[in-house]
Design brief:
Number of domains: 1
Number of helices: 4
Number of strands: 12
Order of helices and strands: HHEHEEEEEEEHEEEE
Distance between the termini: 28 Å
Strand content: 15-25%
Bound molecules: adenosine-5'-triphosphate, magnesium ion
CATH superfamily: NagB/RpiA/CoA transferase-like
Structural class: alpha/beta
Radius of gyration: 16 Å
Length: 207
């Protein structure tokens, strides 16, 4: 049985509780979750019209994206992964990712492609961004690891509809009733978990 997260929990406390919760999943549960996630991702019509899709390599108990990445390759999609921007602190760059791309462990212990200028994909060329998160709520709000990387990346899409649409990926146990949020937090229109797809047509920052 999962205890609800207290409504007055701070962002730091929520991050800690949810990371513990998803970290407690067994290897078998993790494997099944990654496969179930892919089955729901296959139902997204957005994929049909997308050529270039950003995703990430799972870390820290995140739902396994490897089956999805392999399926995207099979579909002939261009897969790109985020890397920490070498000069612009707090920002991401996206690099093309193939089964042969060299990778290394970044300062957060996250595996990312080795920076290679010839592999950089401008954000305007990305059609969809599968977005990692620690927690999401019943209003489409998202809480990340605390770096603000995705809030910065998605700002232009949220404010003027320009750029790639984000789709959050998570385990079901990462959903909470209501997240505390800040003015810079970008809510997401769609989240996919192993059990279902969650849609929010419109976001109201006053929720
Ligand atoms: N668009 C932005 N411009 C400048 N600073 C920002 C922007 N978005 C977020 N930040 C800063 O980033 C910091 C971390 O933000 P936050 O706690 O929301 O991260 P997060 O959403 O958990 O992380 P991430 O987006 O990397 O998953 C905050 O101090 C915030 O001021
Ligand atoms: Mg945020």
């Amino acid at each position: 049985m999962q205890y609800p997260i207290p409504l007055n929990a701070t962002r730091t406390q929520i991050r800690q509780l949810i990371r513990q919760r998803r970290g407690a999943l067994s290897a078998t549960e993790q494997q099944q979750a990654g496969l179930a996630l892919l089955e729901n991702i296959k139902q997204l019509t957005h994929i049909d019209n997308a050529n270039t899709i950003a995703i990430y390599l799972s870390n820290d108990g995140e739902v396994d994206t490897q089956p999805t990445i392999e399926w995207l390759w099979q579909q002939g999609k261009q897969v790109v992964l985020p890397v920490l921007h070498p000069f612009s602190s707090g920002h991401l760059l996206f690099l093309h990712y193939t089964p042969h791309s060299p990778v290394y462990e970044n300062k957060y212990g996250i595996i990312e492609p080795v920076l290679d200028q010839t592999q950089v994909c401008p954000i305007k060329n990305i059609d969809l961004i599968f977005t990692p998160l620690v927690a999401f709520d019943h209003h489409g709000q998202r809480l990340g690891m605390g770096g603000g990387y995705y809030d910065r990346t998605l700002k232009s899409w949220f404010e003027n509809g320009k750029g790639a649409m984000p789709i959050g990926l998570a385990h079901d146990c990462q959903q909470v009733e209501q997240l505390p949020y800040e003015p810079w937090d970008i809510p997401l229109p769609i989240f996919v978990t192993p059990s279902r797809i969650w849609h929010w047509e419109k976001h109201d920052k006053s929720l």
